[in-house]
Amino acid sequence: MKHYILLTIFLFFNISVFSQSLKPKYGVELSSSLKKIDTHSAVNSPALSGYIGIFSLVPLKSERFSAKFCSGLNFTSIHRDELHFLDNGYGGYGGINQGEGDYVVFPEINTVLTTLSVSVELRYYLLPGKPSWGNLYASLPLIFESKPFIDSWMLRSGFRVMPGIGYRYEFNKHWAIETDACVGWGYLKSDINAFNNKTISEYSASLRIGYTF
Prior knowledge:
CATH class: Mainly Beta
Mean pLDDT: 83
Distance between the termini: 29 Å
CATH topology: Porin
Order of helices and strands: HEEEEEEEEEEEE
Number of helices: 1
Strand content: over 45%
Shape: elongated
CATH architecture: Beta Barrel
Number of strands: 12
Structural class: mainly beta
Largest sheet: 9 strands, antiparallel
Low-confidence stretches: none
Number of domains: 1
């Protein structure tokens, strides 16, 4: 966890340095997303996730390019069906039809897990200027997500690269709404052993509202 906290401090320190010449905008945002999660933990995917966090938008050399730095909390709704295994007598488990032994039942789970998310997103707006109806953008977010704050064998810490396409509409100079769809890759890291580390395909669809100070 301390690595993510240090990364968050590092990112926002760099933003404060850049702000002297690039004049970034700061704000807070709420979002809801439907996303693929750790299917290796036998939980249902996609899952609904809520997010609350702070951000900074840093314009680059052109108005059509920008970088977005975010840090906040994810609240992911988890459901896992009841699991049935056979104890093989050697400290391991097999499928329900494998050999003889005692049945081991893992109960159904419905819970909400909280994780820390830190991200850097490079963004390119497809249309010049600021059209009155909004603007489309292509994005390349790099996302670091911690393991859940409470002990859980579900949802490992992870690193995700999620290219996507989005739409942004600004109601006024403070309020804006965004929606996007992303497809990419994720690397999930287990604290148990390296054998449980996984690389998987990823996807998500999100809707967010933000307030810029």
